[in-house]
From TrEMBL, chain A:
Protein known as: Photosynthesis system II assembly factor Ycf48/Hcf136-like domain-containing protein
Lineage: Bacteria, Pseudomonadati, Pseudomonadota, Gammaproteobacteria, Alteromonadales
Keyword Membrane on entry: no
UniProt KW keywords: Photosynthesis, Photosystem II, Signal
Organism: Colwellia psychrerythraea (Vibrio psychroerythus)
Keyword set includes Signal: yes
One Pfam family cited in the UniProt record for this chain: PSII_BNR
UniProtKB/TrEMBL annotation, chain B:
Membrane topology, as annotated: Multi-pass membrane protein
Protein name: MMPL domain protein
Pfam families: MMPL
Top-level lineage group: Bacteria
Record key words, sorted: Cell membrane, Membrane, Transmembrane, Transmembrane helix
PANTHER family: MEMBRANE PROTEIN MJ1562-RELATED (PTHR33406), SSD DOMAIN-CONTAINING PROTEIN (PTHR33406:SF10)
Subcellular location: Cell membrane
InterPro entries, per database record: Acrflvin-R (IPR001036), MMPL_dom (IPR004869), Mycobact_MmpL (IPR050545), SSD (IPR000731)
A GO term from the CC aspect: plasma membrane
């Protein structure tokens, strides 16, 4: 185990000035999403199960759609039109969705009606993932190393600055700036961290993956992170533990790495594609799918030791997927795609 | 006084008939020369309502966004895919040929071979890219494999390469002026070059070349219009047979036809002298002039022969006929002319031109057939053939028809007419404004041009039916999130309107580019709120993309529609107006419209707006002329009412045959009314004299039939035959016009001999019976 344990220095930055600013100017007017016939046929960015029998998908223009069969989708009441990037449901009722303008939305009725918990357009940054371990404690991550945490079910969200993801040079530089000018320091830290692309719960641990080969693990729900030694300099977008207990991580330009549960070694798996890989999905049989840009679909039947290509003819970007009632239900730049992958 | 004026003209004319004849010959020679100088003339702006608000927007921004004047050439390989040496040689040939045609904007020629067709791919440390066809390209298996890979990376499948890799596209825009000569671009010459130098040269074996675009369409229309010469000859031949059957005299057949041809020559000569060209749209007018001329000529010979038969010398018979027909013929022709002139009220260049062409032609007929023809007839030595006018004496037919003017049958006739009118009125409400069929509306669906259009829209993600909504805002507006996100919202709402297939704007491109700058991650497919990032996302979009002007104060949202049917256009236009109201502001104004469908929308609206005033004017003119010539409200009613019923039935016919009200069919309604009134006027002019003499309606009508019946029948048939040859035209709009005019001419004739007397039976009832 060659984990480098970094200092877990967390700064709680007061967000009150940001909230004050948002009440002014045009940014204050939030426009509710409109019901659109094409909502399920246009850019959707994430899909998740709600309990066992329902699905929820989120995407552009504040679209949130729920379905109980994967074919018929009903548009939810959403108070904003921002592009939503991720959705998570803790149980059949409680769910959260995040997106651009550091927006966090919450639903208490299984995804039919949503309220704004956070909307910070002045930050000019998107959130990319959200995870709750119970109805009170949750964490949302996004671009430029954003981390927001709540301890009260999302009534209040606090920003965290995870300095441990800074490069050594940057730490030194920031200390100098901070000593001279607090304002300049706050400007600098706003965009200095790498993008955090995803959070993956793995037993009692949490994985964080992101830009420049960022891969880290936390055993204290994200208070401290242990970074893995860099083995790839591109971005990671998806991570999952297979049924056999090995870990797969997928990212930019067709890169897939696999870590055997018995060793900490990350082995590159040949995929023969340069498509960006967005999501790893498990079928209820032995198959593992990796969804990618431009219709790329990779299939493994040997627990991720090898993948073969099953590119989709229409070349649409497959962004996220779930295995639902024997079919792969994916979201893409043309909305919901039900892909029949009978063996 | 009036009579003395007509008399003086008459006496003067016939006294100096040699002089008159000489004058006609000299004038004809002059106009014949002028007519040979006439050129075929087609221009884009003539076809659109320039003063319509949409078109003002279109013209204002045409310089920035080009008009709709593009050329698309799809080179296809019927043997599977394009990746073979033969195909690439042909494609390169087409690209180079197009590049060197004068008038093509060389900067905008785009195909696989243009240097600005590049691919960009995301790699770990940024971007990598290059031209899709490398500088060292060889059409070998290896070289073609590289190109195939680059095509996929460049994301040009659907635009430059067909979805199924069976074709590749060469696109170009046309300039307004020929850069070599500095003269206005000759669209027809470009079309000729495209056909000869591009298609003929490169279409062989398994390689086919498909060309679409306004210039090519006009070229094909002009080509189709040339077939008109054949139809003209055919119309003359059939008409000659008809007139011969009527007159049983070769001389009497030749004279009215000759006079009508003189009218056509004068018309063309005068047009040419006035500096007009002959548009493919109005090329049918000479037919109409010819047919109208012959129909009036027939009335004239009918009258002369009758008078000769009654014992007059040909000379005095001609003179008497001139006197008898000057008023009804003059009134009828004047109402034709007025009918055409009402078309001037429509603000579309081509309809105005048609109005001028047609009214000049009809005015010429007054001279040639009401003056020249009797003068010529007075020289002839007409032998009264016993058979001539035989029909006139066949009182069996005429007395049967005269029955229409008795109350019993009249009641039935009027009831049937009323039912037809009600049904026609009800069904006619379904009349659609605009084009109802896919493809270029001027041409048949089976024409090469439309087949090429279907092929291209089928194999590429391209629609030729698009409309641009122009967003007018402040300078540098594209660097502001608020403006761009408003455009984005507008575009999204439009995409959701039925009939809109897809849409593109700088806003939607900015989202894709932004994702591209972020490793191609679709979660970044948003308009960046950060201004620097927003600038970065649009910086590489050139103004030649047609998505912004140089300072991005003007940006269109281009809506690709499923088709250009009237319903589709209306739905979209209404949605645009509603959404523009909702999202528009002082700073961000959404303006209709550009693009081919924008032009169609404006044209449809102009046509729709013009319909009612045009009908009011043409009926107003007909009513006024009837009132003046008959000085009787009853007489006016019996002429105009059947006319109106026929107009209504024509609308029903259009609805039933799926013919929309368009730039080409709208004038037909005015022409139909203007010409259709002739029959009624001829019949009633005799009838009203007889009624005044004290005959009852039945007898007056019988007299009118004896005098004019056969001539009216022949007139209706001649006119109908003249225009029915258009059924065989290569041009769809000529076919539509032909069907409608044939219907109007025939049915107006029937109405004049059936409905008119029936109405008369009720309008002059007691008086007739009292006298009897």
């Amino acid at each position: 185990m060659r984990l480098s344990v970094a200092f877990a220095v967390i700064y709680f930055i007061s967000l009150s000035p940001v909230f004050a600013d948002t009440t002014a100017s045009t940014i204050a007017k939030q426009i509710p999403a409109t019901e659109s016939p094409l909502a399920s046929k246009s850019l959707l960015l994430d899909i998740s199960p709600i309990g066992k029998n329902k699905l929820v998908a989120v995407g552009q223009h504040g679209h949130i759609l729920v379905s109980s069969d994967g074919n018929k989708w009903r548009q939810a009441n959403v108070p904003v039109q921002v592009t939503l990037t991720s959705v998570f449901f803790l149980n059949e009722e409680l769910g959260w969705a995040v997106g651009h303008d550091s927006t966090i939305l919450h639903s208490q009725d299984g995804g039919l009606n949503w309220q704004v918990q956070q909307y910070l357009p002045l930050l000019e940054k998107p959130l990319f993932d959200v995870y709750f371990k119970d109805s009170q404690q949750g964490i949302a991550v996004g671009a430029y190393g954003q981390v927001f945490r709540t301890l009260d079910g999302g009534n209040t969200w606090k920003s965290e600055f995870h300095q441990e993801f800074l490069l050594a040079d940057d730490v030194e530089y920031l200390n100098e700036v901070k000593a001279e000018d607090e304002a300049a320091y706050l400007d600098e830290i706003a965009f200095i961290l790498p993008h955090f692309n995803g959070l993956v719960q793995d037993g009692h641990s949490l994985f964080l993956l992101g830009e420049t080969g960022l891969l880290a693990k936390s055993d204290d729900f994200g208070i401290t992170w242990q970074q893995f030694d860099a083995f790839y300099q591109g971005s990671f977008f998806s991570l999952a533990r297979t049924k056999a207990g090995n870990v797969l991580v997928a990212g930019l330009r067709g890169h897939v790495y696999r870590s055997d549960k018995r060793s900490s070694q990350w082995n590159e798996i040949s995929t023969d594609t340069t498509a960006l890989l967005n999501d790893i999905v498990f079928a209820n049989d032995q198959r593992i799918f990796i969804l990618g840009n431009n219709g790329m679909l990779l299939v493994s039947t040997d627990d991720g030791e090898s993948f073969s290509k099953r590119p989709q003819q229409d070349g649409k970007t497959l962004i996220a997927g779930v295995w639902f009632k024997g079919k792969l239900i994916a979201v893409s730049d043309v909305g919901i795609k039900v892909i029949d992958l009978a063996q | 006084m009036k009579i003395s004026l007509a008399n003086r003209i008459e006496v003067g004319l016939f006294r100096h008939k040699i002089l008159v004849l000489m004058l006609f010959i000299i004038t004809s020679a002059f106009f014949l020369f002028q007519a040979t100088q006439i050129r075929l003339d087609a221009s884009f702006t003539k076809n659109i309502p320039l003063n319509h608000s949409y078109m003002k927007t279109y013209l204002k921004h045409r310089a920035n966004f080009g008009g709709a004047n593009n050329i698309l050439i799809s080179v296809c390989d019927s043997d599977g895919d394009i990746f073979n040496a033969d195909f690439f040689n042909a494609l390169k040939g087409v690209h180079d040929k197009l590049f060197f045609i004068p008038g093509v904007d060389r900067i905008q020629v785009k195909s696989l071979f243009s240097p600005n067709t590049r691919f960009v791919e995301v790699v770990e440390d940024g971007f990598a890219g290059g031209p899709v066809i490398p500088a060292d390209f060889q059409p070998t298996e290896a070289g073609l494999a590289i190109v195939k890979g680059n095509i996929e990376k460049a994301g040009i499948v659907g635009s430059i390469v067909a979805d199924d890799y069976s074709c590749a596209m060469v696109k170009a825009a046309l300039l307004e002026f020929n850069p070599d000569t500095g003269e206005k671009l000759d669209t027809l010459e470009i079309a000729e070059k495209l056909e000869q130098e591009v298609r003929q040269e490169y279409e062989h074996n398994n390689i086919s070349v498909h060309i679409i675009g306004f210039a090519k369409m006009v070229g094909d229309v002009a080509e189709g219009a040339k077939g008109v010469v054949l139809f003209f000859a055919l119309a003359i031949a059939i008409t000659a047979v008809m007139v011969y059957i009527f007159s049983h005299s070769i001389r009497l057949t030749i004279l009215p036809i000759l006079c009508s041809l003189v009218a056509v020559v004068w018309q063309m000569g005068m047009l040419s002298s006035l500096g007009f060209g002959l548009d493919p749209m109005s090329i049918l007018i000479p037919f109409l002039v010819f047919a109208i001329g012959v129909s009036h000529g027939v009335q004239m010979i009918n009258s002369v022969v009758k008078k000769v038969a009654s014992g007059l010398t040909p000379a005095s018979a001609a003179q008497a006929s001139f006197r008898a027909l000057l008023i009804p013929g003059g009134v009828a022709l004047l109402s034709d002319t007025v009918g055409f002139l009402t078309l001037l009220s429509i603000d579309i260049g081509i309809i105005k031109e048609l109005a001028i062409t047609a009214s000049i032609g009809v005015a010429m007929i007054i001279l040639t057939n009401l003056v020249l023809l009797p003068v010529l007839l007075s020289f002839t030595n007409i032998k009264v053939n016993a058979k001539v006018g035989q029909l006139s004496e066949q009182s069996a037919v005429w007395s049967f028809m005269a029955g229409f003017a008795s109350k019993g049958p009249a009641r039935v006739i009027l009831l049937v007419t009323a039912i037809l009118f009600v049904v026609g009125f009800y069904k006619g409400q379904g009349l659609k404004i605009g084009e109802l069929h896919a493809g270029a509306p001027a041409l048949h669906e089976s024409s090469r041009y439309n087949q090429d259009t279907f092929l291209i829209t089928d194999r590429y993600a391209i629609s030729v039916d698009y409309m641009s909504v122009i967003i007018e805002t402040n300078a540098n507006a594209c660097t502001y999130y608020d403006t761009m996100s408003t455009i984005d919202r507008f575009q999204w709402q439009m995409e959701n309107i039925p009939g809109v297939q897809s849409a593109v704007s700088l806003a939607s491109i900015s989202k894709i580019v932004n994702a591209g700058y972020n490793e191609g991650n679709p979660k970044w497919r948003v308009i960046p709120r950060n201004q620097q990032t927003l600038v970065q996302s649009i910086a590489r979009v050139p103004s030649s993309s047609g998505l912004l002007n140089s300072d991005c104060s003007v940006m269109p949202v281009i809506l690709f529609l499923e088709d250009h049917k009237a319903d589709t256009i209306n739905t979209v236009i209404e949605a645009v107006k509603a959404t523009a109201n909702e999202l528009g502001s002082e700073q961000v104004q959404f303006k209709l419209a550009s693009g081919p469908v924008g032009v169609m929308a404006a044209t449809n609206e102009a046509v729709e707006e013009a319909q009612l005033p045009m009908m009011l004017y043409v009926y107003g003119a007909v009513i006024a002329l009837c009132l003046i010539s008959f000085r009787s409200i009853r007489a006016t009613l019996v002429v105009v009412l059947p006319l109106y019923v026929v107009s209504t039935l024509a609308q029903w016919l259009m609805t039933a045959l799926d013919i929309g009200l368009t730039v080409s069919t709208l004038p037909v309604i005015a022409l139909g009314v203007g010409i259709g009134v002739d029959y009624g006027i001829y019949i009633l002019s005799t009838m009203s004299i007889k009624l005044k003499e004290g005959l009852n309606v039945h007898d007056a009508y019988l007299e009118a039939l004896k005098e004019r019946g056969s001539a009216v029948l022949i007139t209706g048939l001649t006119l109908a035959i003249g225009v029915s040859t258009w059924f065989f035209s290569d041009l769809k709009f000529q076919v539509d016009m032909g069907i409608l005019l044939t219907f109007m001419f025939l049915v107006n004739m029937l109405a004049a001999i059936i409905v008119l007397p029936a109405l008369s039976a009720f309008l002059w009832p007691t008086k007739g019976h009292d006298k009897k």
